[in-house]
Design goal:
The complex is a heterodimer of chains A (about 250) and B (about 800). Chain A is of the alpha/beta class and about 250 residues long. Helices cover about 40% and strands about 25% of the residues of chain A. In chain A, the strands form two sheets. In chain A, strands 6-7-8-3-9-10 form a six-stranded mixed sheet, sandwiched between helices. The radius of gyration of chain A is 19 Å and the shape is globular. The chains are: A alpha/beta (about 250), B mainly alpha (about 800).
Chain lengths: ~250, ~800
């Protein structure tokens, strides 16, 4: 469903000059699996996912999402994905219902069906009691629920979650992860970025460790553990990063 | 394909969102609805509470005033002498006549003491004043004697007494002091009696005994009091004159032998129109700008600030649709703010007039509503005007990272708007063809004219079409810019990075490319304009300082210096510092022979065409300023050597301007890969550099030809040749003697007009055909295709490619 081939992105920075935020990254994600992008802050996760959602344009490489090219068919890509990140806020002066309804209409869902779907989603996500609450009055957890509802209102085959649990308390975070799991079981193709090891261990079918714009390792967790002879995910992560830093230092010399 | 459904969805959401925003509602609806009634109430209150403090006028020697006609009455002037009799209350007259003691004198003790003090001050002033007058009289006497020493001494004394006088006057509580000379009443009576008997008068009565009035026009209180005293004196004098005339059995109208009668045709409606024509356009424009200001910030920067921008970007709506939706929202708010303000002001004004009747407020003018046709035009013109403001505000607000930043960016826009509006308020400024094409100004002046004269509005409708067309054009341009802003990643995802000048300069140096960037080209133009503005004063001073004989020479020297220092130097410096290839930036390549030929031939055919075009459009442009006329005249000064004139007017501009505009600026603008845009922008900047409307127009058109040649030949030299020959032709045309008569068949092609050589239509037709052929050849040259290909291949492999993508999309 997602096919990423040598995707690169660089941009100008006043301080550091031209920066390569993502350096020839390639991976594939199939339907019915959760693919994890694991990396520290600034590793290029958000840049990568933004390019997949066509908000940013790649400066090199190719990517197709649900069969559509992100460069040439951005419209089609956007109608077939649900995207949620800590940057996709909700409107302060709209109620939960209006917000999700608005995006549903932008996705061109037929009005009758939209209302039915809205009702179903609000029930499954237990949001019926906040349907007429304004965004500015909501707690972080409520907002996150609205965001999820907004993400899945058009029933997209591909879902992209960019650190969806950042800033949430344990209970809400758990609920979000449960929802993502449930979506996988529905057969969605899910890409999920995080810097939290436990989330990866619990949730992801396959994972890519990303650092300084490069994928250091890719595979299912048992595969990675076997490949690097390390049973602890956290240790594995650190040793990969250490290895990469050593290589960079070698090159610099 | 743009989907209107999405635009409508976004528009409706934004509208609802704004309606739920208290700040926007306050600015758009509540403020206008409350502000004007509140101001009205305030004005009524003020007029009720307002009363002017009486001012002190001291009259010394009041006993010498004639008894008839009477000037004073108690401690006031006689109210008959004022146009508005109640004004008499505003001046308190203190005289040196002992007041008649009243019965309740006890209450007036403090008043008496005050009067006494003022009188004392007046007497002190009188002493100094007499001395001052004495000195002045002496001055007049010795003026002709040429005794320098005595003159100096006296002059010092005069200034001394003058200073003492003003000091004493400022310290006193007197606003106007009147000194009546002794025996005034007797003399007036004497003259009147002599006149009545028709006896000759052997002295000038106006010269012998003149009352003296002391005031200080720098002090507002004194000035106002003096104006009233002047009014009193004038009408009092007239009364004395009338009295004399009647006693001498002469008609009272004797002093006004012609006495024309005038009839004022102004009707109430027109008086009202006069006031509206001043207030309405100004208010309309400022309110349209303010109405766009706040919603635009909220829709642009506010969306980024609240973190909902990305939510919207990942929806299927295209960015163009998003911008259009937002733009329409801002437009609706801008229009409704302007209309609500006008309506509120109109109704308040009308209500107040009804309220006050013919009271003090009627002086402001009638505030009845403008006619329906005027209102219709207000709405029609408001739409493109609001669209321009909305698009500009939205583009700037999108660029801003936060609402606060948005306000910083938009404030200059508001200031410029207010400046233009104030300019249009001036009664001397009227709409003409030139103004009708200027943004904002055209609309303001057209509205002003339409509201001013409902009768001759017919002529004004001629301007309605250009004003509307250009306004729509400007707003489309602004909208295009807003959409462009919305498609740039570096604008949408600008993160708060620390900005330091040093860092930025280092960044510029580090990311040097073969060619300058778009922004650098724009900056180069701004620098050229600023420098030009900066030295304008110095240059004109230097020209004025020169004597008549050396003026043309000085002018030409300065022209060359200006070309070198202001136009060529910035471009060359920037080219060396900011690019890696000076040669490529300035196109220092040898062109093919064909292009050299075009450079040689094209000016000969374009010169007649542009000259005739310019003179046929002469009516359109404002008259040339005197300074420019002088410069142009020196071009055809026969006393100057021809080589010098050609150096100044042809060679220097050909090299310097080409380096700047077809070198650095065109290369920079072309970096975005849109050659046509680069050519247009470079020719527009080239035109703008010429400052004077006629030349701006001409230079812009020629800039297009020059740009085409530069881009397609990849060389600067054909342009330099063209520029040199073209300017030389203008110089040589001016040097043709006025007496020259074309003959030998030439008379079919050229004629001699009063303003020099003119070209006839056969020549123009030939020129046009040749020009089209030449320009077509230029465009068709495969050179350009090879050029584009080579640069695109090059840029693909270079790091510039990445930057270009982030630059544009």
């Amino acid at each position: 469903m997602i096919h990423v081939d040598q995707l690169s992105k660089s941009f100008d920075d006043l301080r550091r000059g031209s920066i390569v935020a993502l350096d020839s990254v390639s991976f594939d994600v199939e339907a019915g699996e959760i693919f994890g992008l694991l990396g520290p802050n600034g590793a290029g996760k958000t840049t990568c996912l933004r390019m997949l959602s066509t908000v940013l344009q790649p400066t090199g490489g190719k990517a197709t999402v649900a069969g559509y090219d992100v460069l040439t068919q951005p419209q089609d890509v956007r109608t077939h994905i649900g995207f949620m990140s800590c940057n996709t806020g909700i409107y302060d002066r709209m109620t939960a219902w209006e917000m999700v309804e608005y995006f549903g209409r932008l996705y061109d869902i037929e009005e009758n069906e939209l209302q039915q779907r809205l009702d179903r989603i609000f029930t499954t996500l237990q949001m019926q009691d906040i349907r007429d609450m304004l965004g500015s009055k909501m707690s972080t957890g409520m907002k996150q629920k609205v965001s999820i509802a907004r993400t899945i209102i058009h029933d997209p085959p591909v879902l992209i979650f960019d650190e969806p649990t950042t800033g949430l308390d344990v209970l809400v975070a758990r609920a979000v992860l449960k929802t993502i799991e449930a979506l996988r079981d529905e057969g969605k193709c899910i890409i999920f970025s995080t810097h939290i090891m436990r989330e990866v261990e619990k949730l992801c079918d396959r994972v890519a460790v990303i650092y300084k714009g490069k994928i250091l390792a890719i595979g299912s967790i048992p595969e990675l553990e076997e490949q690097y002879h390390e049973s602890d995910m956290e240790e594995l992560f650190f040793s990969l990063i250490q290895q990469h830093e050593d290589q960079l230092a070698m090159k610099a010399q | 394909m743009i989907q209107w459904k999405n635009i409508k969805l976004i528009l409706l959401r934004e509208l609802k969102d704004q309606m739920r925003d208290r700040r926007t509602l306050f600015m758009v609806a509540v403020l206008p609805l409350l502000l004007y009634p509140a101001m009205g109430i305030g004005m009524v209150q003020m007029t009720v509470l307002f009363s002017e403090q009486p001012r002190n006028v001291v009259v010394l020697g009041a006993s010498d005033l004639p008894k008839h006609p009477q000037l004073l009455e108690g401690d006031h002037f006689v109210s008959n002498w004022f146009r508005i009799p109640s004004d008499a209350e505003k001046l308190r007259v203190i005289t040196d006549i002992e007041p008649v003691k009243k019965a309740d004198a006890a209450a007036d003790v403090s008043e008496d003491a005050q009067q006494k003090e003022i009188l004392e001050q007046a007497h002190k002033l009188e002493v100094v004043l007499r001395k001052h007058q004495e000195l002045l009289k002496q001055w007049k006497q010795i003026e002709d004697q040429e005794d320098l020493q005595q003159e100096n001494l006296l002059a010092r004394e005069i200034t001394e007494t003058n200073e003492r006088l003003s000091k004493l006057f400022a310290e006193s509580r007197i606003q106007v002091l009147i000194l009546i000379p002794k025996g005034l009443s007797k003399e007036i009576e004497l003259v009147s009696a002599k006149l009545a008997r028709h006896e000759p008068i052997d002295f000038d009565p106006a010269d012998s005994l003149r009352p003296l009035i002391l005031e200080n026009s720098a002090d507002e209180k004194s000035m106002i009091a003096y104006r009233r005293v002047e009014e009193v004196m004038r009408s009092w004098e007239k009364a004395i004159l009338r009295d004399r005339l009647s006693r001498a059995n002469l008609p009272e109208s004797l002093p006004t032998p012609i006495n024309p009668d005038s009839i004022d045709l102004a009707q109430d409606e027109q008086l009202a129109a006069n006031l509206w024509s001043k207030l309405f356009p100004a208010l309309l424009i400022i309110m349209a700008a303010t109405g766009a200001f706040y919603p635009a910030i909220d829709l642009g920067a506010g969306e980024k600030e609240r973190g909902t921008m990305e939510t919207l970007l990942i929806s299927p709506a295209k960015r163009t649709e998003i911008v259009l939706g937002k733009f329409l929202t801002v437009l609706i708010f801008s229009i409704s703010t302007a209309l609500l303000n006008l309506a509120s002001m109109g109704f308040t004004g009308r209500h107040m007039v009804n309220l006050a009747g013919s009271g003090a407020l009627s002086k402001i003018g009638d505030l009845s509503f403008p006619s329906y046709s005027a209102l219709f035009w207000i709405v029609v013109l408001l739409i493109p005007l609001s669209a321009l403001f909305s698009a500009l505000c939205l583009a700037l607000a999108t660029f801003a990272r936060s609402s606060k930043e948005g306000q910083y960016y938009l404030t200059p826009l508001l200031m410029v708007t207010i400046g233009l509006t104030v300019f249009c308020l001036s009664p001397a400024v009227e709409i003409n063809a030139f103004y009708s094409l200027m943004p904002v100004v055209g609309v303001a002046l057209l509205l002003k004219g339409m509201l001013l004269s409902s009768v001759n509005a017919g002529i004004l409708y001629v301007y309605a079409i250009p004003v509307l067309v250009t306004s729509v054009g400007y707003s489309l341009l602004a909208l295009w810019w807003a959409i462009d802003q919305f498609q740039r990643e570096d604008v949408l995802f600008r993160e708060a990075e620390r900005f330091e000048v040093g860092l930025w300069l280092r960044h510029l140096m580090r990311t040097k490319d073969a060619l300058p960037s778009f922004a650098e080209a724009g900056f180069c133009f701004v620098i050229i304009m600023l420098l030009q503005f900066g030295v304008m004063n110095t240059m004109s001073q230097a020209i004025q300082m020169a004597t008549d004989a050396e003026r043309p020479l000085r002018m030409m020297q300065l022209l060359m210096i200006q070309q070198l220092a202001i136009i060529a130097t910035p471009a060359l410096m920037m080219g060396i510092m900011l690019t890696t290839s000076v040669r490529k930036t300035f196109r220092l390549y040898l062109p093919s022979l064909g292009f050299l030929g075009v450079g040689l031939l094209l000016p000969f055919v374009l010169h007649p065409l542009s000259l005739e075009l310019a003179s046929s459009l002469d009516w359109f442009f404002p008259a040339l300023p005197a300074g420019t006329v002088a410069v142009l005249k020196s071009m055809s000064d026969p006393n100057q050597p021809i080589w010098l004139i050609l150096m100044a007017f042809a060679f220097a501009p050909a090299v310097c301007e080409e380096l700047a505009f077809r070198g650095f600026i065109l290369s920079g603008f072309g970096r975005r890969g849109r050659a046509w845009l680069a050519i247009i922008l470079s020719s527009v900047t080239f035109g703008a550099m010429h400052m004077i409307p006629q030349q701006v127009f001409n230079a812009t058109l020629l800039g297009l030809a020059l740009g085409l040649m530069a881009v397609h030949s990849r060389s600067l030299f054909p342009g330099v040749i063209f520029h040199f020959i073209y300017n030389s032709l203008s110089v040589l045309r001016g040097r043709i003697p006025e007496t020259w008569v074309p003959e030998n068949g030439l008379q079919h092609f050229v004629t001699m007009g009063p303003d020099g050589l003119r070209y006839s239509w056969p020549l123009l037709v030939i020129s046009a055909v040749v020009a089209i052929v030449l320009l077509r050849w230029v465009v068709l040259q495969s050179n350009s295709r090879a050029d584009q290909k080579s640069t695109s291949v090059e840029s693909l492999t270079s790091s510039a490619f990445d930057r270009r993508l982030t630059d544009t999309k």
